Amino acid sequence: MSKTPLQFRHNGRDVAIFVDGGTNLLVALRELIGDMTPKFGCGQGGCGTCSVMIDGEIHLSCLTLAETVAGRSVETLDGMKQGPNLHPLQRAFADNFAAQCGYCTPGMLMAAKALLDRNPSPSRADIVEAISGNICRCTGYESIINAILAASGGRASA
Amino acid sequence: MPVTVKTFASSNEAAAALSSDRTARYLGGGTLVMRALNEGDVSISTVVRASDQALARIDASGPRVTLGAGVTFARILSERELAFLHAPARSIGGPAVRNMGTVGGNLFAPNPYGDFAVALLALDATVAVQGGFGSRDIAIEEFLQSRERQSGTLVLSVSCTRPASADAFRYRKVARIKPKGGSVITLAAHLPISGGRIAGARIALGSMAPTQIRAKAAERALEGRALDAATIAAAASAVTEGTSPSDNALGSAWYRREIVGVHLRRLLSGQE
């Protein structure tokens, strides 16, 4: 079976790869580009840890056919930190103990960034809605919600 | 296992490719087909796509609303003209799934999904499909009943008449995880009122049968009557007639039968 050439922007950098028919974007990012920040969780669209932004919109990379991102811009957690400095969301996650095992964190951070890019001062309800597609089995979500509130300048509840 | 991906500029060509190959599936937003591929579904060897912009068109200017099959739930939520469809659109997935999942794909989503199709069924929607021999319109009820045989046809669009008032169309999804989760049961009711009486009642249910179904006994209990407590009670006690729910991780068939009347009563009485 022939491979399909694919070019897109990955965290602001042009990349070109060859994909097998039916390859999903998560596999393309991890195995062909070497960006290990989006994680494989369920492969069904239920957990959200593979979340990436495509042209500024949050998508599930495991359910995205890789070749549909041709010519588009894909942003992953790997592109979030600015040089040696953590992104304010990453800092807030660390300060608010929003990661325990950390497996959901890449998706949570991307979902949070997608929210703050559109709505810089979200309510608690907006945050709950924004991360509703992302499952965390450790934290009980409160610390994650508080971290996102803190990053947006809002006050975290005790 | 690698599959062949065929991308076409027009929906005509995509429909022809789909109808001529039994192992072909149409890829819309990817939430069903990519999931099947991730799970190793070997019955799919060809994936068909169309970049036709007509599939993403929304016509909501008049009383008749037409949604292209490729319209996502996020786009429905961004259209003020489609406010009557916001509750079902919002009840689906998280933000990422709503950015991906489409109106056309939802018609094929098995239990415990397919909530948008429940709303469309209550609205007596028409599904425009294209097979190998041209396009035609099918009533959504007939489409859903023959869904297994529809995988070789391409859904082009879905259309329905806008409800006369916000109160005439009601929707409720019962899920264990809020605000997101698979459906325990899903209910939609269209209750057009003429001269103080219900004329053309439609009650649609999700997760109460292998596909979305109408609760015709409940519709008969409502037809021609005023929406008062006695009518609502009669509809609620008739709603399980003709249903055949199954057990799954979200709820048992028994539980679904027990709660569907309760939720219909609350929906029709305007209770939360």
Overview of this protein structure:
The complex is a heterodimer of chains A (158) and B (272). Chain A is α+β, with helices and mostly antiparallel strands and 158 residues long. Chain A contains 5 helices and 5 strands, in the order ββαβββαααα. Chain A has helices spanning 25-33, 88-95, 105-118, 124-130, 142-151; strands at residues 4-10, 13-19, 51-54, 57-60, 73-75. A 5-stranded mixed beta sheet of chain A has the order 2-1-5-3-4, sandwiched between helices. In chain A, a hairpin with a 2-residue loop joins β3 and β4. In chain A, α2 (88-95) crosses α5 (142-151). The longest helix of chain A has 14 residues, at 105-118. Chain A starts with a strand and ends in a 7-residue tail after the last helix. In chain A, 49% of the residues are buried. The mean pLDDT of chain A is 94. Chain B has a 5-stranded antiparallel beta sheet. Chain B has a 4-stranded antiparallel beta sheet with strand order 9-10-13-14, sandwiched between helices. A 3-stranded parallel beta sheet of chain B has the order 1-3-2, covered by helices on one side. The longest helix of chain B has 17 residues, at 253-269. Chain B has 11 helices and 14 strands. Chain B is globular and about 55 Å long. Chain B is an alpha+beta fold. At the A-B interface, β4, α3 and α4 of A face β1, α2 and α5 of B.
Give the structure's gist in a few sentences.
The complex is a heterodimer of chains A (158) and B (272). Chain A is of the alpha+beta class.
